[in-house]
Amino acid sequence: MVETPPSATGEGASATRLPVAWPGPDGSAPRVEAAAPRGPYTAAIAMVMGAVGLFSLSDIFAKQLSASLPAVQVTWMRYVLVGAIALLLAIRRKRPLRPARPLLQVLRGVTLLGAGLFFIMSLHGLGVAEATAISFVTPAFITLLAVPLLGEAVGARRWTALLIGLAGVLIVVRPGAAAFQPAALLPLASALCGAVMAIVTRRIGASDSSETTLFWSAAVGLGLLTLSAPWWWSNFDAWFIAPALLMGGLYGAGQYLLVMAYGRGDASMVAPFSYVQVVFATALGAAVFGHIPDAISLGGIGLVIASGAYTLHREGMLPDWRRRPAVLGQGPGRGPEH
């Protein structure tokens, strides 16, 4: 789950910070290189919705592959394609790839890998809709972490939204109930990794360009997965190649649409539409796997969506200097996320 990260323009700490977005399950909102124009947002919103639709399709293929292959191998397949895209973008834009803060870049790469791996692992035991909805609790985790790590003040309204979102997750997960599945904890781990990644992204945003961050996030994840391959590699038949390419291709196409979307509209305006991914995931899960969440789970999913959308709304009302850079996707991401 690797996506174009938000960062500064790459011109140094004094560079003007641009609009940012919240994270999703598997992965991250692209960084735009110029302030988004004011005006009609129809095209940008359509692009965001198209992107999350592609992410949901990619997750469908990931779930199919994870039924026969280790989740870590499915994650590696996605990283191979995204790593190639990251390298091509870096070469095309001719930005320096040497990071100013290498340790933080490595930490970001590790947390991004964790977000994507935990999400894909969850697909083996959960429906795509439930996994996607749970991983969308990332904004709540960011709010929690921003207080001790960034010294950020959080108002009563955002605390209320956070608690509502967590309540929605508890309704979906239902710990202690007969319907509880341990796999439901994996999207939570994915969301936590995504939140840590978002905090780290803020630390490196003023010193490294988007292309540098994207490249190193992909390189760290792909490197770790490849080095560990002898312990998890499973030989696969040729028929796995097509769905693997589709999984990576759909994911990459979604990233391209996000780049276009955030170049056309303010992140605070278009980012809330990323929650349409939960709707897409539910519809695709029903169509492909015949899985429809029960009424209780749907109620919890609704609370998560309402909480996240309100948090994004409040974020958009903050001054630019107080906005937290983060990532959008799926993901979960997903992420990139996921």
UniProtKB/TrEMBL annotation:
Residues 1-22 are annotated as: Disordered. The chain crosses the membrane at residues 41-62, 74-91, 103-121, 127-147, 159-177, 183-201, 213-233, 239-258, 270-289, 295-313. The keyword Iron-sulfur does not apply. One of its GO terms (cellular component) is membrane. Keywords: Membrane, Transmembrane, Transmembrane helix. It comes from Candidatus Andeanibacterium colombiense. Residues 44-173, 183-307 form the EamA domain. This is DMT family transporter. It holds the Pfam family EamA. The lineage of its organism: Bacteria, Pseudomonadati, Pseudomonadota, Alphaproteobacteria, Sphingomonadales.
